[in-house]
């Protein structure tokens, strides 16, 4: 294996949160059909006292296979299959974690609401829901747009692929157009996709060009609307670590990016909470008013 390829695999596995020992063990095993734990320890430099623990973890992540022999032998799963396996494992674990956190939040919220009369009197109960996959996420957004009567604030990112993906948002854009005709004010705040480029070497003019092309598309989408003046779009070079959208100053949708492909949304959490919506709305408008250019 070429050194450059090995380095690329190493960086990729680091991005998947594998430990140094796990990476060294997998790379050491990769050129061979099978090896014993002792042989892997010698080649990888992983201490013999840790090697079995590391091999068990790689097996759990479905990156190696264990042959039931004496002594046991370990076989690497080819990278193309191993990468898919670990990505699937991360997806499963993230789904389980999000579901567990959401259920715990609902349970705590229910206990607080039932036991605290002050909370009841203030009607401050928080409602959570989650959406996984394209269909569920699109359904969540369609419902939120259709139910909006006052204001929609959308946080989006820019990269060279964004303009090509606009056509996949046709259904949502149609509902945005209907919302504009109902008199709902809509703001699109575009920011830089930090995962795609090294921010220190960022070519700002490229992003400006991307934005101007998107503006042209948006004008064509909404120019026939009788209330197109309710729509505004701006671009900021501000880095936003978590993307969120706000509907009618009370609902927030937090967008969780896919750790494997950050240009895609893995899941969304919808939170119905006036306080959170107000805080994030202030943050949104601060960027909008003081750190943007090119208004539509």
Can you walk me through this structure?
With 296 residues, this protein is α+β, with helices and mostly antiparallel strands. It has two domains: 1-125, Orthogonal Bundle (Arc Repressor Mutant, subunit A); 126-290, 2-Layer Sandwich (Endonuclease, Chain A), CATH 3.30.870.10. The protein is 52% helix and 19% strand. The protein is built from eleven helices and ten strands. The chain has helices at 3-15, 20-29, 37-44, 48-60, 79-115, 117-122, 133-147, 162-165, 170-181, 204-222, 274-290, and strands at residues 35-36, 64-67, 73-76, 127-132, 151-158, 185-192, 231-235, 243-247, 251-257, 265-272. Helix 7 (133-147) packs parallel to helix 9. The radius of gyration is 24 Å and the shape is elongated. It starts with a helix and ends in a 6-residue tail after the last helix. Mean pLDDT is 81; it is low at 118-124 and 196-200.
């Amino acid at each position: 294996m070429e050194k450059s390829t090995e380095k690329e695999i190493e960086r990729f596995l680091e991005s998947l949160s594998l430990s140094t020992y796990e990476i060294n063990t997998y790379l050491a095993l990769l050129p061979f059909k099978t090896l014993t734990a002792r042989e892997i320890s010698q080649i990888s430099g992983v201490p013999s006292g840790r090697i079995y623990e590391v091999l068990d973890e790689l097996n759990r992540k479905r990156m190696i296979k264990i042959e039931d022999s004496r002594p046991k032998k370990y076989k690497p799963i080819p990278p193309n299959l191993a990468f898919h396996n670990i990505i699937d494992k991360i997806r499963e674990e993230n789904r389980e974690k999000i579901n567990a956190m959401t259920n715990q939040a609902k349970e705590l919220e229910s206990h607080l609401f039932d036991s605290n009369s002050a909370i009841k009197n203030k009607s401050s109960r928080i409602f959570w829901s989650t959406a996984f996959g394209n269909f569920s996420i699109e359904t969540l957004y369609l419902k939120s747009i259709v139910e909006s009567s006052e204001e929609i604030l959308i946080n989006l990112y820019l990269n060279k692929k964004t303009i090509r993906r606009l056509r996949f948002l046709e259904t949502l854009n149609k509902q945005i157009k209907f919302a504009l005709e109902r008199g709902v004010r809509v703001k699109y705040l575009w920011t830089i996709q930090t995962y795609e480029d090294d921010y220190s070497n960022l070519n700002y003019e490229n992003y400006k060009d991307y934005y101007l092309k998107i503006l042209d598309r948006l004008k064509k989408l909404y120019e026939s609307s009788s209330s197109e003046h309710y729509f505004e779009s701006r671009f900021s070079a501000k880095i936003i670590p978590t993307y969120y959208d706000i509907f009618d100053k009370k609902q927030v949708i937090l967008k969780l990016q896919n750790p494997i492909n950050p240009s895609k949304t893995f899941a969304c959490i919808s939170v119905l909470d006036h306080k959170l919506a107000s805080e994030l709305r202030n943050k949104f408008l601060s960027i909008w008013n003081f750190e943007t250019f090119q208004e539509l």
